[in-house]
Design a protein that fits this description.
The protein is α+β, with helices and mostly antiparallel strands. The protein has a domain of 51 residues. The chain is built from 1 helix and 5 strands, in the order βββββα. Strands 1-5-4-3-2 form a 5-stranded antiparallel sheet. The longest helix has 14 residues. It starts with a strand and ends in an 8-residue tail after the last helix.
C-alpha cells in the first residue's frame, strides 16, 4: 500500500521520466528527488508517493504501473 499525499512543487522544474500506459502514473523528478505522481478524480490536482532516491521511486512506479488496468482501453 502506498501513502498518497497532495503534490506540492519543491523545485522550479518537474521532469517526467516514465508514464504508465494511459498516463495514470508518472515517474517524476524535481530538485534531485524522484517520486510517483497520479491525477486525483476529475480535477487538475495531483498526488505523490514514493518520494526519495531513484531506486525507491522506480520500485513504486513499476509496481503501480504493472498492476494498473487502464479503464480507457477497450477489452
Amino acid at each position: 500500500m502506498y501513502n498518497w499525499r497532495p503534490y506540492a512543487p519543491r523545485a522550479a522544474r518537474l521532469r517526467i521520466h516514465a508514464t504508465s500506459c494511459c498516463g495514470e502514473y508518472e515517474l517524476a523528478a524535481e530538485g534531485g528527488e524522484y517520486f510517483v505522481l497520479r491525477w486525483t478524480g476529475g480535477s487538475d490536482k495531483q498526488e505523490e508517493t514514493g518520494r526519495g532516491v531513484y531506486a525507491h521511486a522506480l520500485e513504486a512506479w513499476s509496481a503501480l504501473a504493472s498492476q494498473h488496468r487502464c479503464s480507457r482501453r477497450a477489452s
